[in-house]
Amino acid sequence: MRFLLLFLALFASSASHADVSEFKVAVGAQLQAMVQLSASPNKGAAQSGGLTGFNELLAREICRRAAVRCNISNQIVADILPGVAAGQFDLGFGNFLRTPEREKQVAFSDSIWRSSSRLLAKPNVVSRTAIQLRQEVTLASLSGVRVGVVEGTLQQSYLRSIADERNLEVLSYRTMDDLISALRDDRADFLLMPVLSTYALISHEPAGSFEFIGPPVADRGLGGTVHIAIPKQQEDVLLIVNQAIAAMRTDGTYQRIVRQFFPFSMD
To answer: What is the pLDDT of residues 153-196, one digit of tens each?
Structure first.
């Protein structure tokens, strides 16, 4: 009887997995990349580099291992979680940390990398602010300045929670591309951003344009493991994705994908 029940369970799982023929994948991208992609007849093609390219290649490898079509679209990060919750996307790559609030909306895969947050600014702004503060500029000492964040992120939530006591003006933008533009045009003094995303974004900027300020911060909700968002009702998709992630880590495929985009470990 035990073997019969096991066989029936495996058969039911296989039959359910067979019903999955396509993953609708949303990948967070800069606004510029989204415009280029939507204007291209090859919509959904992987980006040339950075975190967008990494996430897209990871998504395609998951699809390949699951033997399903991979329908990728690039989306503004703030729109991905609501889209996944509404069933518009099967997989959402927005560099999401798992939080109790988010878990009410969507399910999350096993971890795909670790994240932390860090301040970014122009060197002259850092020097000027250090003189005003009479101490080294860090997230803990920051006060009386304009700080930009991406709308709907944990960085935004944290800054809003300390804005009054620190006399901070929190400026929210839809995309990281908008954030960098605000810093470049002196519409923001500092940015609080995920380290890996920022590294990928500023790697093509002229040397000395921006610099990271203070140490990376992973507590206070500003760092931790990053996960793929999946609709709550798609438990079979969650199982398939987790199996693919585990297999990629075991056979070295995950590490090879990382090395294509970044000169360091993401764990």
So the answer is: 999 999 999 999 999 999 999 888 899 999 999 999 999 999 88
Considering only CA atoms, which of 81, 114, 78, 62 is closest in space to residue 226? 114
List the one residue out of 198, 217, 218 whose CA is nearest residue 209: 198
DSSP 75: E
Note if the pTM is more than 0.85. no
Element (H, E) at 228: strand 224-230
Reduce the secondary structure of 16-48 to three states and give it as a string.
Answer: HHHCCCEEEEEEECCHHHHHHHHCCCCCCCCCC
CB 189 within 8 A of CB 147: yes
Task: Return d(Cα 194, Cα 150) in angstroms, integer.
Answer: 10
Question: Sign of dihedral through CA atoms 214, 215, 216, 217?
Answer: negative
The SS3 call for residue 193 is strand
Angle between helices 176-184 and 195-202 (to 10 degrees): 60
d(CA 12, CA 40): 41
| SS3 per-residue string spanning 135-177 | CCCCCCCCCCCEEEEECCCHHHHHHHHHHHHHCCEEEEECCHH
- Here the tokens at position 139 are 């997230």
